[in-house]
Design brief:
There is one protein chain. Helix content is 39%, strand content 25%. With 97 residues, it is of the alpha+beta class. It is elongated. The model has no long low-confidence stretch (mean pLDDT 90).
């Protein structure tokens, strides 16, 4: 079903609830980066995400990161942060050193 494709059992409540899948979060994140692209004034885009999402963006969904880099003409750095909820992400920009 569509629900099973987009959601997974919640790791925070032992599977009673549902949260967005890491793939769904990855694509939502890509849409948001494109939406705010004008405000990203540095030469690098930094994305802080839950470690599960970071792993997915660096492996199975690395094409998402490559596509963002190509579209934005900037380096995109994915940083895992265990303090970030699995459905959250934080987008910022910086100048590369």
């Amino acid at each position: 079903s569509l629900e099973k494709s987009l959601l997974t059992p919640c790791p925070y409540c032992a599977g009673v609830g549902r949260v967005k899948s890491v793939e769904t979060v990855s694509y939502a994140l890509a849409r948001e980066v494109r939406r705010v692209r004008e405000s990203l004034d540095g030469s690098e885009v930094i994305i802080r995400v839950h470690p599960d999402v970071a792993h997915t963006l660096k492996t199975e969904e690395k094409s998402v990161v490559r596509s963002l880099e190509r579209d934005l003409k900037k380096t995109v750095t994915v940083r895992p942060d265990p303090a970030v909820h699995r459905e959250q992400y934080f987008i910022s920009s910086a100048t590369q050193r």
